[in-house]
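Sharing a chain and its predicted structure for anyone who wants a worked example. Both blocks are below, sequence first, tokens second.
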Amino acid sequence: MKNMKSIKRTFLTLTIISMALTITGFAQDREKETVIAAPATPFTYQGKLTVGGTAANGSYDFIIGIYSEPDGDSMLGEQTIEGVQVVNGIFTVSLEFETGAFQRFETAYLDIQVRPEREGDYTRLLPRQQIGSTPYAKIADSAREADLLTCSNCITDGQIVSVAGSKVTGTVANATNAVNATNATNAVTAQNALNAVDLTSDQTIGGDKRFTGVLNGLGGFAGDGSGLTNVSGTLRWNVVSGTSVTASPNNAYVATNAGQTVITLPASANPGDVIKIRSQGDGGFRISQQAGQQILASNIPNNTFVFHPKGNNGSWRSITSSADGSKLAAVSNNALFTSTDSGETWTQQNTGGSGNWVSITSSADGTKLAAVRTNISGERIYTSTDSGVTWTIREHIRLWQSITSSADGTILAAGDNNGRIYISADSGETWVIRSLGSQVLRAITSSADGTKLAATGTGTFGSQIYTSTDSGLTWTARESNRQWNSITSSADGTKLAAVVLNGHIYTSTDSGITWTARMTDANRNWPSITSSADGTKLAAVVLGGQIWISTDSGSTWTARGSNRQWASITSSADGTKLAAGVSGGQIYTRGPALPATTAGTAGYLTGGKFSTIELVYIGSGQFVAVNATGNFIAF
């Protein structure tokens, strides 16, 4: 192998050992084109290479071409294969040529050139090797002849084992026993088809039948859908006149009962199922849960008034708030409570004395408090400078009715049962008296600086509203004689709002000179009203009714909450935080969006009259509130 570059062609020989597939030409009928069957490609070629009569060993490069003639330039294709391992002269190569080249000629020849790997010129081995025919190649060509034939009845039923449905085209008559016809498009009439339903007439379809895709050209479905349940994306409204019902998925319910209607969530639902509930009845609704269920209520919109019950039951008479709403103080008949966390927790304070508490007021920062109590023979005024922890008894024994404070807590004004108003300019240490005649002074309110005061009175034939612009030194009677009850003021004292027992709400924008009647649709028993610092947000409570809210200085009102024996209400300076006490019940605070109900049968969600909520099932026993208007409480 040392002088392989100079090896003469006569010393390099090749012996064909085998070809995995060889072909040759054959004669056909006179009227057919002469072709040969194409071999499988690639095919394997094996030979023996000798050098000077000795079997070659090593790595060689080959150029193998296909020619249609034994000599001359009739090449049909060529392939170069480098680095072929030759062992004892034996080598094997895989050849891949265009199959059409074999079908165009009767015979084909291999032209082989060889050289040691990457050394010198190639040596062509002559003569060219003719490619012979193998038996199965001949059969394959015969099969090709069959493609050229057309015949009638040349395939019998016995020869057909099965035919893929996708290969059947045209008209198929008498296709009986077609049980499963997958992808049978444009099947206009399918006689004797198992379970076929004629949809052109009224039919009762049994079993679990499902429509998928788009129904085109049908004009939609007719009917009111009253028999459909658990259909995602649709809602059928059901009127519930009774007091209880178990909801079905994808249904809506209107509760009309005067008492509370209990609507129980369905025991099972699929993710995406919807339940919608609205209350038209006075009693509202209660959404009860089944085992493992919970309502996620944090998505209740922020503009929904959400009230939480807090503290103990009591006969709450009056409640007051700091400007930011964080500090609250409330009095019941025989107890005084304070809160420093916006009403979440309450502490009863030891004030001393006896008698029933009737009114309490707070400075803007919540540190200075003043409260009055009364009994048959009268009682005293109490003040605190540490948010209600300790108290000092002030003034004389009188039949006190109401008390108010300036924002800094220095100017106080209190009214009694005999038409007299007492004024203090030193946080309650000393007092001066002013008389407004023989009447019961029911309520009194103050501007932030304490210069503007307004008071309401009542008597046998009613009384008027009285206003002062000099911290109570002089007073002017306003409006008409009515059974005035509660009154509230903006921080600058220009906007006032007052309520009448079994009457309407009245507002003023000129410090009480002129008044406009509001809420004139019906007479209501209003015990209390409160205002934001700018006077735009008002809230009033009805004894035995709801909480009414206004965000436009009293022009329009919206009812919130459930019917309760509301007694008193107070507001933060911005009007976003409200706290209201129920006579014989708890204190309710308007707080942030509800997090969730208690999981399981112990948890539930209530909604007041005219409240509406939409729940979507998200799996794992959880329903999420996606839309809500009205008042809700989670338990």
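Comments welcome. Residues 4-147 form a domain with the Immunoglobulin-like fold (CATH 2.60.40.2060).
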